Amino acid sequence: MMHKIKPLLQVSLILLFLISPKIDAQKVELKANTLFLPIGMINLAVERPLNKKFSVQAEGFISPWKSFNGKKLQFYMGTLEGRYYFDEVMKKWYVGAYGSIAAFNIQKWNYLKASPVYDSEGNPEILPDGNIRVTERYQKGLAFIFGISGGYHFIINDKLGLDVYAGIGATQSIYKGYLKDNNERYDGATAWNKSGELIPTRGGLMLTYKFQ
């Protein structure tokens, strides 16, 4: 499933340049999220203005970790965001609206610890050595996110800046849950599970570079 989402990141970046072809390319900003780079996660973005108040940003977020500190943490996410600046585009305070799609193979926060495995009758499974079977659980699937964001764009000089931002979104996910010790379904189902949450879905401190 992961290979299916990678082309979406490339398409979102290409789409950004096609939706406003009359804008001078020298006003484009390239960005890198400095908070995630130290732990090997890549979060890059391209923002360009539509007029004096509005801009559009395409963003890619990749966490390649099949295992991070012993936990599954692999996902690929593409985001397209529209922004409104209260002062001037790419300067000071702004608000935005965004949509994201992500493919993931992760352990959700409430599945990080190992717990007993139960049989169909609700009894703990017993291993050949007499111990209760205990393992962690993980989830694989797709997530669709729609949310609102806000932030502040600092100007360092003619080329460099900082973009501090955060966003909260309504997340709809389809996924399958697996036992970590044998990769079998832990929910006894064959179809997709579904879940919906309202959670923080993006944020960071991006170093920006403007073409001049």
Task: Report what the structure shows.
- This protein has 212 residues and is mainly beta.
- It is built from one helix and ten strands; from the N terminus they run αββββββββββ.
- The chain has an eight-stranded antiparallel barrel.
Give me the Rg, rounded.
Answer: 21 Å
Mean pLDDT comes to 86
SS field, number of helical segments? 1
Order of helices and strands: HEEEEEEEEEE
Shape: elongated
**Proportion of helical residues:** under 10%
Give the number of DSSP strands.
10
Give a quick precis of the structure:
This protein is mostly beta strands and 212 residues long. The chain has 1 helix and 10 strands.
Secondary structure layout plus pairing:
Layout: H1 2-18, E1 29-33, E2 42-49, E3 54-68, E4 71-85, E5 92-106, E6 115-116, E7 134-135, E8 137-155, E9 160-179, E10 193-210
Antiparallel strand pairs: 1-2, 1-10, 2-3, 3-4, 4-5, 5-8, 6-7, 8-9, 9-10
Name the features.
two-stranded antiparallel sheet; eight-stranded antiparallel β-barrel; elongated; 8% helix; 212 residues; mainly beta
